[in-house]
Amino acid sequence: TVTVAPSFLKGVITVGNPILPPVVSDIPDQTINEGQTFATINLDDFVYDLDDPDAALTWTASGQSQLIVSISPARVATISTLNPDWFGSETVTFRATDPDLNFDEDAAIFTVNPVNDPPVLANITNKSRLAGQTLSFVTSATDIDNPCGDILFSIANAPVGATLTNDAPCGATFNWPTVCTDSGVYNVTFIVSDGDLADSQVVQITILPNPDRFDTNPDSLAFTFAAGQSEPATQNLSVNDPGCGEMTFEVLVSEPWLLATPGNGMTSALLTVGIDTAGLAAGDYTAVITIRQTG
């Protein structure tokens, strides 16, 4: 401080150093591709303050919404994206403030270029069916970059008779009406593609032997009648072999008053079942129809 006191003046004039704000220089813009990382910024390299050391300055960032800007105590800025699949540009303004609240700032543009991401096939569990039955299920996929209509499903190593139909915006239907000779294990590759990138999964499909057996429908029959009335109406009993062979069978009844015709057949038949009420007193009666393989 210099004090000037001329003899002819009755006052003091004081001349002091002015308080100068920090000066922030141009912070470079940055451009990366989706999935890459922005370079860190050493903010001390972009500020000059005649009055204060770098450590005395406070840095802030503003303007970002899809970007995350973190400034460390050492004044190093790290920029990242909120969503790893986001692309676009944002302008971030960096401000340096000194202890006297003087500041300067500079804006930098950070750009993320889009990169095609592959579609993702939803997990498909292994499947199994009996030979002669139909295996059908829907598979699906997602693609962060493309609408569903732009992805295509396909299969490799498909068994004979199996199809995959692109019949849904984000999915496809696998259908295989197996035959009795299809027993075995099949490794089928399911693929989804956006025309450039693809995802795939190998699914194990097991077709089990389908042994011969007899199914009947319904499981039971009931007849009700009153003494002196005519015989109750007959009822139908279907016999079916859902297995892969052809079996001959005979029909046996456990009581003489129970009637079932025809008495034999092959693979499937429709039996007519009735009762002979002659000689039956009032009461409840139970009998069994047995379908037995012959030959």
Strand fraction: over 45%
| Secondary-structure element pattern, one letter each | EEEEEEEEEEEEEEEEEEEEEEEEEE
Give the beta-strand count.
Answer: 26
Low-confidence spans: 1-14
Largest sheet: 4 strands, mixed
Compute the number of helices.
0
Average pLDDT reading: 89
Q: Tell me the Rg in angstroms.
A: 43 Å
**Fraction of residues in helix:** under 10%
How are the strands ordered across the major sheet?
4-11-10-7
Provide the structure class.
mainly beta
The end-to-end distance, rounded to whole angstroms, is: 126 Å
- Tell me, what's the shape? rod-shaped
Question: How does this structure look, described?
Answer:
The protein is an all-beta fold. It contains no helices and 26 strands. It has strands spanning 2-4, 13-15, 23-24, 30-33, 41-42, 47-48, 58-62, 67-71, 76-81, 88-97, 103-113, 120-121, 127-130, 134-142, 152-156, 163-168, 171-177, 184-193, 198-208, 215-217, 235-240, 248-253, 258-261, 264-266, 268-275, 289-294. The protein has a 4-stranded mixed β-sheet with strand order 4-11-10-7, with no helix packed on it. Strands 12-14-17-16 form a 4-stranded antiparallel β-sheet, with no helix packed on it. Strands 13-19-18-15 form a 4-stranded mixed β-sheet, with no helix packed on it. A hairpin with a 5-residue loop joins β10 (88-97) and β11. The protein is rod-shaped. The protein starts with a strand and ends with a strand.
